[in-house]
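Proteins fold reproducibly. Look at a sample protein:
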Amino acid sequence: MPGEAPAISVCMATCNGERFVRQQLDSILPQLGPHDEVIVSDDSSTDSTVALVRSMADPRIVLLNGSFRSPVRNFENALGAARGERIFLADQDDLWHPGKVAALMPLLERFNLVVSDCNLIDENGREIAPSFFAMRGSGPGVVKNVLKNGYLGCCMAFRRSVLDMALPFPETIPMHDMWLGIVAEMAGRTHFLRNPLVCYRRHGANASPTGEKSSYTVLQKIRFRYRLICALVGRVRSHE
């Protein structure tokens, strides 16, 4: 019925994503129900991204426009508009495997947050690596993920309770997915699913540097993690 609250909100941040955004949406929309939603938050695109999204004319797509100059703030904007009880994150340039939603939804009955593995592909769709988890050494643990983040946003789905605790994002966090994953661990149980359910595209112009060598200095990394820990402590105390 019109106005029915969605069970699932997919939150996607876009910025000059015309090359791949339609392919990504085409991989997502068939997996959703008629009352689910895809929140697309665009950050000042100067190419045809916005026009391409609008041209799909799918009533489940909610398009937001803003000027953030930050993928973290862009995702925060999308997440702030989400109405679903189950939240999925999506990058503009990846591809979801068929059956991703069906695989993750039952797990969200048992866990606060689930992150699946993914295979890495290049701009032409050729596989670079079969497993992000194997390459990154991904797994649960607050200390483990503060030291080396394994929570990959484009592979994550979580309950609304995680979102309620995670928003608003602290000003000091380096990555939204790292923040969401560790907040979920502090609030309950998370699960790393070893099945690859996303083709994670790396093409040299990604908004997120995950998977590449970090450009931050050791001192910057220490500062990021100190600020992250302080933000976590403050957020947990505020929800006690």
Notes: The CA atoms of residues 5 and 240 lie 28 Å apart.
